[in-house]
Specification:
355 residues; three-stranded antiparallel beta sheet
Amino acid sequence: MEFVPGLALCRRFHDEAVAPLLAARLPGLRYSAGLLDGGSELLGLDTERSTDHDWGPRAQVFVADPADAASVRAVLTGLPVRFLGRPTRFLSWPTARLGVPDVAGDRSGVEVAGWRDWLRGRLGFDPTVAVTTDDWLALPTQRLAELTGGAVFHDGLDGTVEAVRAALAWYPDDVWRHVLAAGWTRVGQADHLVGRCAEVGDVLGSQLVAARVARDLMRLGLLLHRRWPPYDKWLGSVFAALPDAAPVTAALADVLGPGDWAGRQAGLVRALETVADWTNATGLAAPVDPTVRPFHGRPFLVLDAGRLAAALRAAIVDPVLRDRPLVGAVDQYVDNVDVLVHSDRVRRVAGAVAG
């Protein structure tokens, strides 16, 4: 079967199957539809490998009044069991969103929900009312990448779906500064350890710390280019697509490759200085000298990244945010999937950390 990218497949599924059925059976229904819930296809990174689970002809259908959802679901039982050769039903997995595509599946690929209820369940708050600083800092960037990526197939709820996507397109400047400062703080806490581990002969430990710093630099690079960092499976792919990423990807390849400490440090220096240059280029704070220097009297070259964090923090206008601990957004200090995918858990964690 010829592979069709998931977003294109799902758009056709809505336009050629879902929309005509709703128009015929529920004329005048006001609804919006799209694909905003997650999956490789929302980032345009799906391949034939993606089709074995959680992938296929599917959509979310949003209604203004949750009481209308039951009648919409009833109508959608009339959808064909296949579309362009792909099953439109799925076998549920205990831990999967939809599960395995199968015409005999117990679940439809079309989720129907009240729009604002769906937002509260997905994000933990209702962005049609307001998006506060606490809301921003409790949102994993993967969730933002999904909601602002993906596609809207029909926006019949007075444009509110696209309005929410626009409202969540990027951080307010002060929140952006805070998140960047937290990212640079993490780098400054670890970059000197790469050389120290190597000095005592712990090659594996040096590589492990270097990998952590590389991940933080890649996330910083995406944030500096106003791109929501995805979770680790796609972090490298999305970072590599940045227009000026090539020097950094080459440098990080040296950092993480099989070379010795001298080669690892040379790559790390190039990556640190380039991402520091990108930070200065945003104009979010007073520029900082992006060149590396020895770590105290030790022979390890570091950026002294706290200088960047301090400059960014000093530029924050909101005094409350300026005084917050520099831990940043929740997925800068939590990487447990079973926390990050549950909005209630992630908000409780973020609230506790914020005090």
